[in-house]
């Protein structure tokens, strides 16, 4: 299949580019526990064949090699136990949500992209105190949503009231996601 072929090609390329890091984002898409795919028919077989090829390739690495394989997921709980065996993905590093300082830094990345009615630093500090537990993606969403709300009201700049409305929308979306 296409998936196993791509995995073989990826690892062949990594061997020619040593030292390197192979990063597999959203590894749960391929590495979900076998027999729990939720798909009927052949789509599941392709995913499982891709996972099997990934396991084969990872077993073929010498521990003295200059290739590090890493993966990212929001769903470590659904990964196949064979992936988490020693010699494969045997270490887990949990990256939690940012603290207030981290949230302020993230706001400082996204806020300059829009016109603000208040000073950037003031907005970043105020919003960071109002968003405990928010991820970087949710913070980016608040900034985008705030800009959209201001635009809908024909404003020249985005104000704190627009961000407050944006937070209500984002929190509402998070609550829907948690229930579903």
Automatic annotation (TrEMBL):
Q: Note the Gene3D superfamilies from the entry.
A: 1.10.8.60, P-loop containing nucleotide triphosphate hydrolases
Q: What processes does the entry annotate via GO biological process terms?
A: mitochondrial protein processing
- Domain (ATPase AAA-type core) spans 1-96
Tell me the lineage of the source organism.
Answer: Eukaryota, Haptista, Haptophyta, Prymnesiophyceae, Prymnesiales
The record's listing under PANTHER family reads:
AFG3 LIKE MATRIX AAA PEPTIDASE SUBUNIT 2, ISOFORM A (PTHR43655:SF2), ATP-DEPENDENT PROTEASE (PTHR43655)
Question: What is the designated name of this protein?
Answer: AAA+ ATPase domain-containing protein
Would you identify the family this protein belongs to, as annotated? Answer: Belongs to the AAA ATPase family.
GO cellular-component term (any):
chloroplast thylakoid membrane
């Amino acid at each position: 299949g296409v998936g196993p072929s791509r995995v073989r090609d990826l690892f062949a390329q990594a061997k020619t580019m040593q030292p390197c890091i192979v990063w597999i984002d959203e590894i749960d898409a391929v590495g979900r526990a076998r027999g729990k795919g939720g798909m009927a028919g052949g789509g599941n077989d392709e995913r499982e064949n891709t996972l099997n090829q990934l396991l084969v390739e990872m077993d073929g690495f010498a521990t003295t090699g200059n290739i590090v394989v890493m993966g990212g997921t929001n769903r470590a709980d659904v990964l196949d136990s064979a992936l988490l065996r020693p010699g494969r993905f045997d270490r887990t590093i949990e990256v939690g949500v940012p603290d207030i300082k981290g949230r302020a830094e993230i706001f400082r990345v996204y806020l300059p992209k829009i016109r603000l009615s208040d000073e950037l630093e003031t907005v970043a500090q105020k919003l960071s105190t109002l968003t405990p537990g928010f991820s970087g993606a949710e913070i980016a969403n608040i900034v985008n949503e705030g800009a959209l709300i201001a635009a809908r009201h024909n404003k020249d700049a985005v104000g704190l009231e627009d961000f407050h409305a944006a937070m209500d929308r984002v929190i509402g979306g998070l609550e829907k996601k948690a229930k579903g």
